[in-house]
Design brief:
With about 350 residues, the protein is α/β, with parallel strands linked by helices. It is about 45% helix and about 15% strand. The protein contains 15 helices and eleven strands. The strands form three sheets. Strands 1-4-5-8-9-10-11 form a seven-stranded parallel sheet. The protein has a two-stranded antiparallel ribbon with strand order 2-3. The longest helix has 25 residues, at about 175-200. It starts with 7 loop residues before the first helix and ends in a 6-residue tail after the last helix.
């Protein structure tokens, strides 16, 4: 299918036969790895790390040097897109991402424009190219972006939130204003992901981290509608190879059928839904990715193996499953427990692919 030495991940996303269940980890290049912390220290700060293609390449490859993972994921941040729109992203120590100029006034919202990814986000595109060269065909590279609604949450609140009160107030009081933000975001994400694909990303994931905070009606109108717009606008083939698209809504288990209907190739699951039940609902339409509870990595290796066995057994025989966490790995995870996880997935999954 490709010139990759290991294309198991791409095959599973396209529901083609595989020898074992492939896996990668959300946030696999991160603070749980001492080597990452050392590179980040050299970079000076998080944005310095993101904006240096050399350092982004270095940290993208670090987990692959430690673990036999089946894919690399570009090291970047979902908020690079609103930063490129001029909102002034910065990271306050211990507080996470913040924006200097959040969207509070109508004129600011009306002035939003779609950034040119080859200009304002050149550092990301350069990193994708550099990582592809460094991987040398060992495993596929995943590109990614935040969903329009998830980006809007940060853009309007100015940072993270427990309740997303400002976003939801706009959603109910001035839906047309929020729709304007979301439409600009959808155009920006489509252009950004297509630029990543052209630079060498072999699959892409849309992270809808906060879609699950919405009501049923609001999720479909303000999150999923724009994800579908992106999926329909993406390049699904590049250099003669299919480029699979994964959609992950944290807390989206209620809406699996709707997510599968966007035209994506795979749906990411968090840990709150049984993967066998999810397969029964949508597994003839899409591949499934997930869905190990990241906090289970704090347990001992035997307990980790039991949880892996349960997820694999629930999914059952055949392709179409990419093993992953149900959300990003915690910075406090013991790296040796990840070794146990990867080993268990690769070893125990072969019986389901006879």
């Amino acid at each position: 299918m490709t010139h990759l030495k290991n294309d198991t991940f791409l095959r599973a996303l396209l529901r083609q036969p595989v020898d074992y269940t492939p896996m990668w980890l959300m946030r696999q290049a991160g603070r749980y790895l001492p080597e990452y912390c050392e590179t980040r220290r050299r970079a000076g700060n998080f944005m310095g790390l993101c904006q240096s293609p050399d350092l982004a390449t270095e940290v993208t490859l670090q987990p692959l040097a430690r673990y036999p993972l089946d894919a690399a994921i570009l090291f970047s941040d979902i908020l690079t897109v609103p930063d490129a729109m001029g909102l002034g992203l910065y990271f306050a120590e211990g507080e996470g991402p913040k924006f200097e100029r959040p969207l509070r006034d109508e004129w600011e919202i009306r002035n939003l424009t779609v950034p040119d990814p080859t200009d304002k986000l050149r550092y990301v595109i350069d990193a994708v190219k550099q990582i592809r060269v460094a991987l040398d065909g060992s495993v596929p590279l995943i590109g990614f972006s935040g969903s329009p609604f998830t980006l809007a949450c940060y853009m309007i609140e100015g940072g993270s939130s427990d309740s997303w009160t400002l976003v939801k107030t706009m959603l109910y009081n001035r839906p047309e204003l929020l729709h304007h933000v979301l439409d600009i975001n959808a155009q920006a994400v489509t252009a950004y992901l297509n630029a990543q694909i052209e630079a060498g990303a072999q699959a892409v994931q849309i992270f809808d981290t906060w879609g699950g905070a919405l009501s049923q009606r609001a999720y479909h109108e303000f999150s999923l509608r724009y994800i579908e717009q992106i999926v329909q606008g993406l390049k699904r083939e590049h250099n003669g190879q299919k480029v699979p698209v994964i959609v992950f809504t944290k807390g989206g288990g209620l809406w699996l059928e709707s997510i599968a209907a966007t035209g994506c190739d795979a749906v990411g699951l968090d840990w709150t839904i049984d993967i066998g039940a999810a397969r029964a609902r949508v597994g003839d339409k899409v591949a499934l990715q997930g869905n190990f509870d990241p906090n289970a990595l704090f347990a001992n290796p035997d307990a980790i193996e039991k949880e892996v066995a349960a997820i694999l057994a629930s999914y059952g025989n055949g392709s179409g499953h990419v093993f992953n966490l149900g959300h990003g790995i915690s910075q406090f995870t013991n790296p040796d427990h990840v070794t146990a996880l990867v080993d268990a997935v690769h070893r125990l999954s072969r019986q389901y692919h006879q």
